[in-house]
Amino acid sequence: MSNSITRALLGAAMAGLALLSLSAGSWAMNHGADMDHDPGRMIARMTDRLDLTQEQQGQIKEIMASSRTQSGADRERIKVLRQKMRAQRDNFDAGEAQNIADEIGELTSRTVFQATSTHARIYQLLTNEQKAEMDAMMEKRQERRGKWHKEEQQAQQ
Hints:
single chain; mainly alpha
């Protein structure tokens, strides 16, 4: 029985990490650029939903600040490269476009890895009960996104 619980928790954690990776990838590609990714707001929501302790809140703030600093330059570089790609409309250079796309891919990969690492570090700070609640929240979020994605696909057909 213990093994099945461990497997279930590990599976839920992996699903959560996969979801976070996909979210980070989308964010890194500049979708939702007008959205405010306010770490304070995120921590407040986590505190409210997971009943974080003061110590957990402080540790999470440190992790998020460090992550944001580390990935900030990559996010800015992606913005510059996306502008260069858009500038290709007038005078397309396949070689240059491919080089830009390759660099965006490398930066996106690094950003997704950083987001996954950050999520894993935060997840390890949680109690078992908080992890279970986090997993449930991530599952609901995935369901909402799946429904939205299906509706979007149907609208395009």
